[in-house]
Amino acid sequence: MTPIIAKTSITILALGAGCSAAAVKGDIYGERTWHKYVRSPNTSIVKPKGILAANITGNPDDLDIPSIVVDFGQNVVGVVSIDFGQSTNSSQGLPGLKFAFRETQQFLTNTSDFTRSDNLPDGQKIITGSDQIAVANEPATWKNNASCQYGEQVCSDGLHGFRYMKIWLGALESDAPYTQPYGDTFFANETDPQDSATPTLEGKRVIFDGAKRNRDPYVGDLAIASLTSYLSHNAPELTRNIPVDLTNHQREDGWIPPASIKITKKSVHHP
């Protein structure tokens, strides 16, 4: 099974905010009526107001990548802190989470509306659009500091200004082997029992023919699955890796296998 977060619980989701209205005692006349106009949170720890139900997608049994959008109720500035109960995975690499921060729902995408890395030249950027985390198997607290978990891999941008925070299962290919993308990586021990394993696809991202039964890259599915993935995911390599690998296994008589099942000879399943 590809890595998913099976038992992760978020017990605290908060950020250290800026100034507090409660700390201001009054104006020069001793009056405090103007406090109702102060937009700053009245505590230094700000908890979310809720999760946007309309933006919840996927579950571990779906092909859609699970995601949620957390609403803090107003624009805030700070460093996010999350307590994780635990995570589980049966593949190489820890389950990965990605984060995008936005001030409005209108432009809520998989890319933050602003990061400090946006202003850095190539080669010095910490992230490119989203923050990443590899979720540990044991209980742990993660703070979104401007740093990387492993050298220059699995990085987050630190302080953000936002109202909405999108969280989804996923990982950058460049963050391997420390974390893995959700649900689409080919591993020999996770394919079906029909001789599907091929070393040339090991560890690459693909579109599977069947989420549970076949779990085999099949060129016949790409006509629809590729168009769907182009709309829902920014990952063209999911499609590209399959025909490239199949054509690399073309026989001397010109025959190209349609799938990795028994890839070196004609299969009774795919003549």
Automatic annotation (TrEMBL):
This is Peptidase A1 domain-containing protein. Residues 1-21 form the signal peptide. InterPro entries: 6hp_glycosidase-like_sf. Keywords: Signal. GO terms for biological process: carbohydrate metabolic process.
